[in-house]
Amino acid sequence: xxxxxxxxxxAGGDRKxxxxxxxxxxxxxxxxxxxxDELTCCCxxxxxxxxxxxxxxxxxxxxxxxxxxxxxxLRHEDWVHN
Length: 82
Description:
It is built from no helices and seven strands. It is mainly beta.
C-alpha cells in the first residue's frame, strides 16, 4: 500500500508492476519494459512518490510512482527477492 492507503502496487511474473486504486480496484499504471525476468517484490517509498521493484533479472529499479519513469537501476550479483 502507498503511505496514504490510496494505492496498491503489485509485482507480477509477467515482468510488470501495476499500481491500483485501493478504493475502486482500477489499474492506474502499468510499469513494463524495465525488467527482463519476473518481478519478485515491489513497494512504495515512504512518501509515495516512488516505486521500487526487484526481479530475478538481478536488478532493482527505482521508478516514479505517477508515470513509471525509470530513475535508477541497482545491479546485483544474484536474484533479488525483496
